[in-house]
Amino acid sequence: MAATDKKKLSRLAVYDASGDLSKRWFVSYYQGKTRVRVYGDINKFKTLKERRSEIDRIISSLEEIEPGWQGELAKTVWARLEEKKQFLRLKTWQTYLSKCRKFELFLKTSGLLQADINDFTEAHARQFLSKQKNPTTYNHYLQMFRGIWEGFAKEGKVTGNLWSNIQPQRQNPVPALFFQERQVKHLHKEIEARDGQLWLFCLFIFYTFIRPGELRLLKVGDIHFEENRVLIRSSISKNKKQQYVAIPEAFQKYLRKSEVYTYPPGYYVFSPGCVPAPDPVGKNWMKIRHQRILRELGYDTKQYKLYSWKHTGAVMAVRAGVPIKILQIQLRHHSLDQVEKYLRQMGINEVENYSDRFPDI
Q1: Mean pLDDT of the 19-44 span
Q2: What global pTM score does this model have?
Q3: How far apart are CA 124 and CA 109, in angstroms?
Q4: pLDDT at 79 over 80
Q5: What's the burial of 5, exposed, middle or buried (CB within 10 Å: 0-12/13-18/19+)?
Q6: SS3 assignment for the chain
Q7: CB 119: neighbour CB atoms within 10 A?
Q8: Residue of 302, 106, 289, 321 lying closest to 194 (CA atoms)
Q9: Residue 267's pLDDT is what?
Q10: Which pLDDT value is given to residue 219?
Q11: Phi and psi for 46 in degrees, rounded to 5?
Q12: Residues 276, 220: contact at Cβ < 8 Å?
């Protein structure tokens, strides 16, 4: 597409069939109200690595024509975001793009499209945020634009950070429900019988609290069987820190039974072939399989999720008497306060451990 033919693209997304190579993959975006699909040579490739490389190439080519922003202020904001692009994951980059598009629309509907950066006031910022009804979304926008304006202030483009005067909204996140012990026993029987690989995935989350996004990229060599610990490499860790978690004794028997240790250290533990292999499962591969079984068993999948196994493991560990400090290390939380807040969200507190000691009058 020539430079003069540039049109505004939005909602860039990737469909990878959760890693299923038998299905057609594509990249999609919206040009105005029209959804466009781009296949390129994606489906000519027979490995996950090759297909994802082609997807990256397509996305890069689309991003060259993506902006086409209307108004100087929107262009200035986007230029600031582009400076961070090399440090961001694709999903984060797409989120930034979406937020900037909504900001551009606000400027347009508010008559600020051609405004200079110094014409944008705190009142405008509050008006923009007021359109975000969800507290979590509100706070995400606030954090993003606060960071952008901080950069402008350091460069002397603006005097002060007008977003800093705005307080975040109180959030009351509702986590996924944890499974009751009777449910755990039932799900153990059902999932293990239907999908052994998925059950091993659930066990990893239950015992080690490794996030699903980290777990799908875990390699055989990351499991230190002799030391009974698992390495979370910085390249797959959410916080980009290299950390270790323990393999509890109760989990060791399942790992031995899986015979994961017999495969090459560079293989991914969870692969589409259901045994360790050079390619990992797709991003939503396990989520979809888990969701399907839960639905068949009558569970509400808006309340019970793959992440429920982490919550279940933490709750059962506390009830079994595992000290909070040990739980903090295994959860990789930075403080005891964070662990206690997490457990309160689960509805767990110390009182229930001593409920039988209250006096009877």
Answers
A1: 82
A2: 0.62
A3: 12
A4: yes
A5: exposed
A6: CCHHHCCCEEEEEEECHHHCCCCCCEEEEEECCEEEEECCCHHHCCCHHHHHHHHHHHHHHHHCCCCCCCCHHHHHHHHHHHCCHHHCCHHHHHHHHHHHHHHHHHHHHCCCCCCCHHHCCHHHHHHHHCCCCCHHHHHHHHHHHHHHHHHHHHHCCCCCCHHHHCCCCCCCCCCCCCCCHHHHHHHHHHHHHHCHHHHHHHHHHHHHCCCHHHHCCCEHHHEECCCCEEEECCCCCCCCCCEEEECCHHHHHHHHHHCHHHCCCCCECCCCCCCCECCCCCCCHHHHHHHHHHHHCCCCCCCCCCCHHHHHHHHHHHHCCCCHHHHHHHHCCCCHHHHHHHHHHCCCCHHHHHHHHCCCC
A7: 11
A8: 289
A9: 94
A10: 95
A11: -110, 0
A12: yes
Q: Are 304 and 294 a contacting pair, CB within 8 Å?
A: yes
Contact 212, 261 (CB under 8 A): no
The amino acid sitting at 230 is V
- Categorize the per-residue pLDDT at 5 as very low, low, confident or very high, splitting at 50, 70 and 90: very low
Read off the pLDDT of each residue in 74-83 and give the average, rounded to a whole number: 84
For residue 235, the tally of other CB atoms under 10 A from its CB is 9
Average pLDDT over residues 173-186: 87
What's the average model confidence in pLDDT over 132-142? 87
The residue type of 238 is K
Q: Label residue 2 by pLDDT band (50, 70, 90).
A: very low
pLDDT at 157 over 70: yes
How far apart are the C-alpha atoms of 278 and 64, rounded to whole Å?
32
Residue type, 357: R
Question: Token pair of 19, please?
Answer: 């890693």
Average pLDDT, the chain: 84
Token look-up 């307080």 returns 167
- What the block records as the tokens of 163 is 């977003």
